[in-house]
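Table S7 (text form). Paired inputs.
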Amino acid sequence: MPIRHSTKKVFSKVAWHAYNIHRKGPFYRSKLSKTTKLFNAPRETILQFQRERLKQLIQHTVQTTPYYRDLFKDFGLKQNDLFQQINADSIDISQILPLEKQTVRKQLENLCSELFPTYQRIENATGGSTGTPLKFYQDRSYWNQRNLSVYYFDQWAGWDFGEPQLVIWGALADVNGNDNWKQNLNRYWRNQHWLNGFHLTDSAMHATFKMMQRQQPTTILAYPSSLYQFAKFISDNNLTPQWKTKGVISSAEMLHPHYRSLAETVFETKIYNRYGGREVGLIAMECSKGRMHINCRDIYLEVDSPNPYTIPGDLLVTQLNNYTMPFIRYRIGDIGRLSDEMCPCGNQLPVLGELLGRSTATFRSKTKTLIHGGYFTQQFYNLAGVTQFQLIQETLEKCILKLVVNEQWKVETSNHIVQKIQDALGTEVSVKIEFVDEIPLPKSGKREFTISKVT
């Protein structure tokens, strides 16, 4: 490794140390060590820790949060009964109504704890990928706990403090031409090199590739769709990365099989899929054996289903660290199911057996079968003549397919596409094809290939 790379790595490691002392106190290494010890503990130790944190959170919430205090009163729920259930081996908080996004919007102030003054709140909001951005509050303790967990899980992919990292992520400031010096400074001391996932031009990707040949990143953090586009650019132009990537962390979107296949081939490494939400932080991460392990230190995860281990349903997330504005049984908008297996990787964190993606991207047939949006994206993968597509399920009987086509498009291809859609949804479903010049990105910057207005 060139001297300047070694020097930058040492500088970045020292900067990370200083940052963590500033944010988490002088004993942050001890906190990180305890975090690691818990995540590597036997399953029962992990679940017992989770039960205690859940009990503390609910007790705090009912006593200090107007919304939940009124909710318990209106429904005649008894706190003591609930606490006894939490202490039992089988946790059941199902008597608490799920927290819906519209409730967060309407009850924003009432969901905030009375113990935290407004100046201690940290305002945040979702990217609005499924509609209007959702505003909420967090606190510094939440962020400190969240970061400790992220540090642990990212090391599964080979990340470590000071190691150079390529980040392919959305950066609205870059799109708008704004030069944020604080942002640039943060990227410098973190030893991160950014490619704007909201603005992937050929020139930007080529410049980034040349820079990575010099910077030698050990990990990549990326939106799956942006990672795929970068990998496709490298492959299409017969470029060969000269750097050794330990692992790729994908996050914020669904990781479709063809995304994974191409990226793992181009970068000659494994992708570690990370699942989370801005409202609640990191929910689960994929291990070396391909299982998604649930972050039980920070999250209590439920599936709204008659049998959460066999029948997929809406994921309900309880965030165990955000005492400023507790999220209890929050319907995050994704569909999945649990697994009771012990992972062969050796880690005993519970496993998220299946993640089907956004409820708005998961289609439903007349027979009530849920169809993963990835089924449809695979039908368009490497389909000659199609540059961009978007499939919208308007009703159980009607779909609209928007297509951006190129000179390789053939009329008979439309029959093939319609056939594949009807194979999944039913032959009686009508598919209207609309040819458009462009399918614009939503404000979130996350491309939506499938949208269901039914689910």
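Next pair, protein 2 of 2.
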Amino acid sequence: MIRILLLFYLFYSFYFCCYAQAFEYDYTNEGYKYVKHKHSESSYQHAWCSAQKGIEEYQNKDFTRVDCLTLIHAVEFDFSNKWAESIGQALHYQLMTGKKAMFVLILEEPQKEMIYFERVKNLSVIYNFDVDFITTEILNLKNDKCPYYDCKCHKKHN
């Protein structure tokens, strides 16, 4: 009986310790659930890619688009809730461009979302791609607004 209780305790401790619930959700008019983000992925992408002097939205011959193509990397950006699917995209872009895959994870709340970066970092060692993360600091916010006017933060309803 003690073993069963111990296993039960370990399972739930692991579950609550490692399963991050860092996201704020909302629903569409049709009832679909989605993760809310204050700033657009493209704003983070633009800030990072400009700093790296990369090409944004580089179109591959199969019509997929690399978020940022640098001299060394084919880079995919996404929010931490999409960490798993974005790895596949980055690896596909590596195949299409011949440049090393890189995934840049957007962490809006780094203390809560770092678990996702750790997952990606562990996989990057196994599958040989580069990984980094960025936070809202890259956006140079002023009054909670970024300098990119097509961003969600400039719309009335986020």
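Strands lie at 25-27, 33-35, 55-59, 65-69, 73-79, 100-106, 130-134.
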